[in-house]
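ok, trying the design again with the full structure, not the truncated one.
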């Protein structure tokens, strides 16, 4: 299955401030096996430029903002992440690029699998072939 969607996380707040909890089966539709975060991104830098074969992920801009470009092989959409109570869930063969990082952006990503370079498709033409079942 190939899809992406925004997930709204409930903010638990009290007089001390805010807290968001992410739990498998509640607001995360997979078991979380890995967490990584991207920060201190230099001005004008673009990242990503790949798709994943099996990985499911949720990306959250816990501070600052950045924009994901998502491409399913036939159309492209841009989604700006700028709120810690919103996560971008990506599943299946979606080509992704990230851009417009604010200097304070901290992008946390929850992943369904451990790091595996074999799960990456880093060549756009190969991505199109795989998406179109040509290889
Ligand atoms: C994704 C987007 C949103 C590791 O060794 N372990 C890891 O868990 C990760 C994520 C990366 N790396 C190594 C691989 C590269 O040598 O860290 C280096 C930078 O990774 P990459 O160039 O793939 O980073 P991005 O920002 O282009 O992509 C990352 C994720 O790799 C990718 O899964 O969907 O963020």
């Amino acid at each position: 299955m190939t899809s992406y969607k925004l997930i709204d996380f409930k903010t638990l707040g009290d007089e001390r401030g805010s807290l968001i909890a992410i739990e498998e089966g509640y607001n995360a539709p997979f078991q979380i096996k890995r967490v990584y975060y991207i920060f201190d991104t230099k001005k004008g830098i673009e990242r990503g430029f790949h798709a994943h074969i099996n990985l499911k992920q949720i990306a959250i801009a816990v501070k600052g903002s950045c924009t994901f470009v998502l491409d399913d092989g036939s159309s492209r959409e841009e989604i700006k992440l700028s709120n810690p109570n919103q996560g971008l869930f990506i599943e299946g063969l979606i080509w992704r690029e990230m851009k417009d990082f604010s200097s304070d952006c901290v992008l946390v990503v929850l992943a369904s699998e451990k790091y595996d370079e074999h799960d990456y498709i880093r060549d756009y033409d190969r991505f199109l072939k795989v998406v179109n079942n040509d290889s």
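Keeping the full-length input from now on. Residues 125 and 131 are 10 Å apart (CA to CA).
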